Amino acid sequence: MKKMAVVTASLVAAFGLMGLGAASYTSQTTANAATTSTSPTISVNTIYNNSTKVTGKATKGVAVVIRNAKNKTIAKGTASSSTGAYSVKLPSTEKTGTKLYVYAHNNKTGRYFYRIMTVKAASTKSSTTSSSTSSKTTSTSSSSSSKSTSSAASFKISTPTGTWKSATYKGWAIQYTFSQKTGLTEKVTYGKKTAYPVKYATYSVTTKTPTFWKINVTPKTGSKSSFYMRFTAKNKFVIVNSKNQVIKASVGKAPAANYTYTLQK
Fold first, then answer.
1. Residues of the chain with pLDDT under 50
2. What domains lie within the chain, and their CATH numbers?
3. Spatial distance between the Cα atoms of 195 and 188, rounded to a whole number of angstroms
4. Residues 207/213, Cβ–Cβ less than 8 Å
5. For 133, phi and psi rounded to 5 degrees?
6. Which pTM was predicted?
7. Residues in CB range of 16: below 8 A, 6 or more apart
8. pLDDT score recorded for residue 66
């Protein structure tokens, strides 16, 4: 299977992002596909250690394939041709922390898209308050908070696909574009000047909670990198650290700040 996206420069996110002058984001979604056609999509509901089925929604009529960490197929199913909903029975329950790879595969075109789901303890169905751990559900916090507080979100995010743009800060604006076809692109503008610290990067999404995600970036050259985001609404996110605390972040030469990114229509 071919990687669908090509990186022209390395990503530097919340923890030290570089270079405006250079030419140039538990479950996990990796943008892998052939580059000549749009891949199918899939969302996966949280899998617990007592789950007997994997459920969610995908592109209508596609095959849904579940594999383990050894790339062995353990279950198969098909998304509804009318709604895209699917329910695939597991051969057995899985241990907490186990990674399952859930694929949407278009058998006609050969295109595919998958999410890596980390099996959670059944106790995560109830809200708790603690430091950042696998027992939490949805997390919210402020930059001054030392702990993350869990609460159920009133919205649901299944994919970062789209263009997300920050408000202007001291004349600077940052834009993230997530595409299942071309990967991740970062754009920085200052007045009439534009730079792309990252173009067409292969990315994956590790979902810590439904609204707290880790973005993993694989460049064509250079080191892999990652950053964290928290969705504050269905169409907004902020950059946070690994403990889900809001931090000042930057891309390229843009000044570090608490940027809020809004999905563009």
1. 1-36, 124-150
2. 1-26+125-265 (2.40.128), 29-119 (2.60.40.3580)
3. 5
4. yes
5. -140, 170
6. 0.51
7. none
8. 96
